[in-house]
Structures are given as structure tokens and as C-alpha cells.
Automatic annotation (TrEMBL):
Keyword annotations from UniProtKB, A to Z: DNA-binding
InterPro entries on file: Homeodomain-like_sf (IPR009057), HTH-type_Tx_Regulator (IPR050624), HTH_TetR (IPR001647), TetR_C_Firmicutes (IPR039532)
Residue ranges of domain HTH tetR-type in the record: 11-71
Pfam families given in the database record: TetR_C_8, TetR_N
Source species, domain of life: Bacteria
GO terms of molecular function: DNA binding
Start-end of DNA-binding region: 34-53
Protein name per Swiss-Prot or TrEMBL: TetR/AcrR family transcriptional regulator
Keyword DNA-binding belongs to the record: yes
Length: 191
């Protein structure tokens, strides 16, 4: 029973620390946020913080890893028959996740966020998309990878704009936009 209580308390503390970090990152970049400031915002003491994280960067990294795990789990559990293209489905699910977790994603996928994390989110679709580009369009793997990296970086910009401007388009519309733009990037290379 005591272990259950401690586990619940630990989840509660971690949730408040994550929420506090997001609130602070809405005001300033992580390198301007101290552990003391984070603890004050979450209303916990520093020793409690250090029971869970080594510093604010560790907290941020664990938040990012949880999101990537969530997206991977969601994609592993989904049925790939909703749309014509597997890429369209993957992107639609990713956009739905971003929409459902918009507050955290708005910060983590913003210009203030970690570029490595942003690319990691979109690299989830990398293997299936590059394979599709190579086989369907008979492209060299290096060319397919270059096209994909170009598309990923443009997609990050679209996601940032979508989040910043209130997500007026649906997750499906955003996925469709990226798929259509991707097709335009691929077309000049098709033999």
C-alpha cells in the first residue's frame, strides 16, 4: 500500500514539474531556467526534484522521450487502412497527437525547442517513407534520403506555424498538405 502511495505521489510530482517547465518555457528558453525557479513554480523542494531528475535538461529530455514513446506506441497500435497511403496515416496520427498535446508540443516543437527532438518526431516516418520513395519511384536511396530530409525540415516549419496560429486546419488537412508538398518534391526525380 505504501509503495502505491509513493508511486502516485511520484507521478503527481513529475506531472507538476513537467507542467511548470512548460509554463516557464513559454516565457524563456530552457538555458535561462534554473532548477530553483522550476522548484518554486512547482511548489516542491530541490531534494524532491533531484530524486527524479539531475537537472532541468534531464527533465526536458525525459518529457521528449515520453512523447516519442507515446507516438511510437500509438503508431504501433493503429490500423493502416484508414487512408490510401501509409505515410498519410502516419502523419495524420502524428498531427492528431500534436493537437491533443498542443500545449507541450507548441513549446517543444517551437523555435525554442530542441531541434534534435523535432527531427526525431518526424524521423519516425523515415524508414517507411524512404522505402516507399525508393521502391515506388525507383530512386537511389541517397536521393530518397535527401528528399526526405528536405521534407522533414519543411514539415517542422509547417508544424510550428500550425501550432503558433491556433491549429485552424485539422490534423488530416495538415497531413494531406505535407503529402501533397512531398509529392512535388519527389516529382522532378521520378524516372
Amino acid at each position: 500500500m505504501k509503495e502505491q502511495k509513493n508511486d502516485r505521489r511520484s507521478r503527481y510530482t513529475k506531472r507538476f514539474l513537467k507542467e511548470s517547465l512548460i509554463e516557464l518555457m513559454e516565457e524563456k528558453p530552457i538555458n535561462k531556467i534554473s532548477v530553483s525557479e522550476l522548484c518554486e513554480k512547482a511548489d516542491i523542494n530541490r531534494s524532491t526534484f533531484y530524486n527524479h531528475y539531475s537537472d532541468q535538461y534531464d527533465l526536458l529530455q525525459q518529457m521528449e522521450e515520453e512523447i516519442i514513446d507515446d507516438v511510437n506506441t500509438m503508431l504501433a497500435d493503429c490500423e493502416y487502412q484508414k487512408y490510401d497511403s501509409k505515410l498519410m496515416q502516419i502523419l495524420a496520427y502524428i498531427f492528431e497527437y500534436i493537437r491533443d498535446n498542443s500545449r507541450a508540443c507548441r513549446i517543444l516543437l517551437s523555435e525554442q525547442g530542441d531541434v534534435h527532438f523535432q527531427r526525431q518526431i518526424l524521423m519516425i516516418a523515415h524508414e517507411s517513407y524512404v522505402t516507399e520513395l525508393v521502391t515506388r519511384n525507383r530512386l537511389e536511396e541517397d536521393t530518397a534520403t535527401d528528399i526526405y530530409l528536405f521534407i522533414v525540415n519543411g514539415s517542422i516549419g509547417l508544424i510550428q506555424s500550425w501550432l503558433k496560429n491556433g491549429m485552424k486546419k485539422s490534423a488530416h488537412e495538415m497531413a494531406e498538405l505535407i503529402v501533397r508538398l512531398s509529392g512535388g518534391c519527389v516529382a522532378p526525380f521520378v524516372r
